[in-house]
Amino acid sequence: MTVAPTVPSDERIGKVGLARRLLIRPELGAVVGLIAVFVFFAAQSPVFRSPAGIANWLDPAATLGIMAVAIALLMIGGEFDLSAGVLTGTTGLILVTLATRYGFDVWTAMLAGLVVALLIGLANGLIVTRTRLPSFIVTLGTFLMLQGINLGVTKALTGTVQVSGLRRAAGYESARTIFAGTIEIGGTSFRVAILWWVLVTAAATWVLMRSRAGNWIFAVGGNEQAARAVGVPAARTKIALFMTTAVAAWLVGSILALRYTSVQANIGIGQEFIYIIAAVIGGCLLTGGYGSAIGAAIGAVIFGMADKGIVFLGWDADWFKFFLGAMLLLATLANRLVRRYAEEVKH
After folding, report:
1. Closest by Cα among 342, 166, 346, 160 to 253
2. Residue 186: strand, helix, or coil
3. How many CA atoms lie within 13 Å of 122's alpha carbon, on the beta-carbon side?
4. How many Å apart are CA 237 and CA 220, to the nearest integer?
5. Which of 97, 165, 298, 321 is the residue whose CA sits 20 to 30 A from 216?
6. Helices (H), 77-181
7. What element of type H or E holds 239?
């Protein structure tokens, strides 16, 4: 009787258990942090866990989350954008200035801001891909130039560092309803920005997990040369990511301008580091090729809970910076351990 030889199984198609699949998810550390932070503040502050309190800390999480998700996509692609924060101010200033000083209706002014944002994102992407300069340096230069333009142009036009009066512009009410209004849920008012945040997170997650573009993003972030060798359009992918970040900055800048009806010339400066921190807390690696949009959104929620939770407990606001630093270190260590475990599972 002849015994058929045993064919070795291919480890690439081996089944991986549910627990192991969960353990190698990049947002695992963020989920654990989210639960811990919520339990900590909720146990000490009834206001924090009330519907009004939840609406209160979801508000800053929403605008931060929109940017953190876009920055996460860029970081997964192996790049950084230090101009993202100040660009929110640039687009907001364009909106308010055109609508209040040059007679544009709000919708046209918003469209003009979007065009400018796309051009800046395109310029960042082209410079990075054509010159091979680090995106850290390129976007730092863009950051400084935009900061100077924001301050210089605003002072030249108004004599101050603020542009205001958007409420009187044509189209303001309709634009505010869509981008900066509120919705009632169970008798509690929630900002519409939260819905935009959910939409952006869902779209980014679909792109990363279900589309060819998502494969390209992971590929160029993991090993750009290898990605090019197998036909991935690395340059186009990175340019698209920079432009995506710019669109997110336009959206956040427009939301804030419509909400407050005025814009300070220095708005957004320093926020770029908060966006990166939220993305890292959410599981993104600084080296690229790893992370998730959902994780970045969770990182933004942690930020919002800490930001408002410290206020609800009556603590000094300076403790918030300590919290951010601690979360950044813990998240980086957790991401490293998860990544190492994921590599061991693959092998």
Report:
1. 166
2. coil
3. 6
4. 8
5. 298
6. 84-101, 106-131, 135-158, 172-179
7. helix 234-260
pTM for this prediction? 0.89
Q: Specify whether the CB–CB gap between 307 and 42 falls below 8 A.
A: no
Q: Which residues pair with 162 in a beta bridge?
A: 264
Q: What pLDDT, in 10s, does the model give residues 293-330? A: 999 999 999 999 988 888 888 888 777 778 778 877 87
Specify the amino acid at residue 261.
T
**Cα separation of the two ends of the chain:** 37
Strand 262-264 to strand 162-164: parallel, antiparallel, or no bridges (unpaired)?
Answer: antiparallel
Structure tokens at 177: 């309803």
CB atoms within 10 A of CB 250: 27
Judge contact between 45 and 53, C-beta under 8 A.
yes
Nearest alpha-carbon partner for 284 in 138, 131, 88, 81: 81
CA distances from 148 to 121, 142, 154, 155, 337 (A): 18, 10, 10, 11, 41
Q: What angle do CA 257, 148, 246 make, to 5 degrees?
A: 50
For residue 112, the tally of other CB atoms under 10 A from its CB is 18
Residues 6+ apart with CB under 8 A from 152: none
pLDDT bracket for residue 199 (50, 70, 90): very high
